[in-house]
Amino acid sequence: MQVTSMDEMTSPPISERAASPFHLAAATFARHWPEYAMEAAELGIFMISACVFTVLLQHPGSPVRSLLPDPFLRRALTGLAMAGTAIALIFSPWGKQSGAHFNPAVTLTFLRLKKIQFWDALFYVLAQFTGGVLGVLIAAAFLGKAIAHPFVLYAATTPAGGKETAFLAEALISFFLFLTVLLVSNHRQFSRYTGLFAGSLVALYITFESPLSGMSMNPARSFGSALPARLFDGLWIYFLGPPIGMLLAAELYVRFGSARNVYCAKYHHHNGKRCIFNCRFGELQDQ
C-alpha cells in the first residue's frame, strides 16, 4: 500500500499546480479563507487589548496610572496583560486552527522554512495587516480621544532608544523569540507548551526591552498603530528588524539541525483542528 506523506496531503492538486497563478490564488483562498479571517481577528483582538491596557496604564486621567506611579511596574503589568492576551489567542479555537501567527515576520519565516505555501503566506500577511488596523480603529471607536493622547498614541511602538539601537533590539528579541518557538514546537514533550514559552518572552520583553524599541516584533502590529497615529518615521525598524531576526534564527536552527526538524508552522498542534500547512507533526508524535 502506498503511503502519502503529510507534505503531499497539504500540497495543491496537480491540476491546480499547472493552473495560472490567478486561478491557483483563487482556489487557495476558497479553501483556506477561514484561517485568513482567524489571523485577522487574532491580531485585531491583540491590538484592542494593547490599546485598552495602554490607556488604563499610561493615560494621565486613568485612576490606574495614579495608583501605579512607577513606570517599571506599569510596564510589567502591561507585559503580563499582553502575554496573557497572546497566550489566550494561541490556545483559542481560532489560534489552534490558523496556527496563531498573527505576525507577518513569523509567517514569512515559516515560508522560508517551506512550512507554508506561497499563496497562504501572502493571504496571511494581508489578513494580519488588515486585522491590526481594524483592531486599533475599533478600539478608537470606544476609547474616544483618550487613545490619541500623547502618552497613549494608539499604543504605537516608537524607537525611544534611538533608531539604530531600536533596530538592533528588535532584531535581537525577534531572533530569540523565534529560536525559542522552533526549539520548543519541534520537541516531542514540550511542543504543547510553545504558546506559554512565547507568551513569557512577550512579558519579559515588554518589561525590560520596551524602553529601547517599544517592543513590537511584528510589522503588522506596529503598522496598525502607526496608521491612525500618523507615526511613520522609524516604521522601517519594525518592518525590517523582526523578519531579519527571525530569519537568522531559522537559518541557525537549520544549520545546526535540518529543515526536516521543523514539523509544522503551528504554535499549538495538540488539537483536532485542520492544518493547512506542509505538516509532518504526526512524525514528531511517533518518535
List keywords for this structure.
14 helices; 287 residues; mainly alpha; Glycerol uptake facilitator protein; single chain; 68% helix
Summarize the helix and strand pattern as letters. HHHHHHHHHHHHHH
Helical amount among residues, as a percent range?
55-70%
Structural class: mainly alpha
State Rg. 19 Å
When the domains are counted, the total is 1
Poorly predicted regions are: 1-10
| Overall CATH class | Mainly Alpha
How many strand segments? 0
* Relevant CATH superfamily: Glycerol uptake facilitator protein
Structure overview:
68% of the residues lie in helices and 0% in strands. It is mostly helical and 287 residues long. The protein has one domain (21-286): Glycerol uptake facilitator protein. α7 packs antiparallel against α8, α9 (163-185) runs antiparallel to α10 (194-208) and α9 (163-185) runs parallel beside α13 (235-256).
Present the secondary structure layout:
Elements: H1 6-10, H2 14-17, H3 21-58, H4 63-67, H5 71-90, H6 93-98, H7 104-112, H8 118-143, H9 163-185, H10 194-208, H11 210-213, H12 219-229, H13 235-256, H14 281-286
At a glance:
Helices cover 68% and strands 0% of the residues. The protein has 287 residues and is an all-alpha fold.
